[in-house]
Amino acid sequence: MKKFILVVCLLSMSVFAGGIKLLDANATDIVYKMPLKKYPDFLCEAKLENGKTIQFISVKSMLQVYFHQEYFLKHKMIDAKIKDIFIQDYLNKTKKDAKRSIFVFGSHVVGPHGDDLIPFKDRYSAKLFKIKYGGTKIMSFDEITLGLIKYLDM
Questions:
Q1: How far is CA 98 from the centre of its chain?
Q2: What's the pLDDT tens digit per position in 72-95?
């Protein structure tokens, strides 16, 4: 039991290097128009096909754009299609490919714009989080649907 508590304490610390660094101190999220610097724990980013990087306030915001790229291109909110997407693990703040990450749905942790998917580098970290903060489901990226993102945004 002592080992488990030690692991939870270590994973709860947010001092680890390697997370997503804010690129522009004055930037706002393109979906929710909220300042990125106010919510560094939830930062996500996308690399565009033209080499640019855009950042988002949360997983939900990033996936809104990812699932609706044509809309955001048409309205000139992004200037190229998304090539890669990244999250930072909620517990240790390490950056990881979102498509290879694990997410917790329905926890007690609320994102900057309400209900959100909480991202993790692996299933073990998600399970530790779920013990402390609850959650309805642990899911892989492939299980996330446009319908779920719309539900989270209600």
A1: 8
A2: 999 999 999 999 999 999 999 999
By CB atoms closer than 10 A (0-12, 13-18, 19+), residue 57 is buried
Q: Distance (Å, rounded) from C-alpha 153 to C-alpha 100? A: 23
Nearest to 141 by CA among 85, 70, 82, 90: 85
**Two tokens, residue 148:** 């779920």
Nearest-CA neighbor of 59 among 17, 82, 89? Answer: 89
Whole-number Å distance between alpha carbons of 41 and 57: 9
DSSP string, 109-144: --BTTBS-PEEESSHHHHHHHHHHH--SEEEEGGG-
Amino acid at 23: L
pTM for the predicted model, two decimal places: 0.87
Domains of the chain, residue spans: 19-152
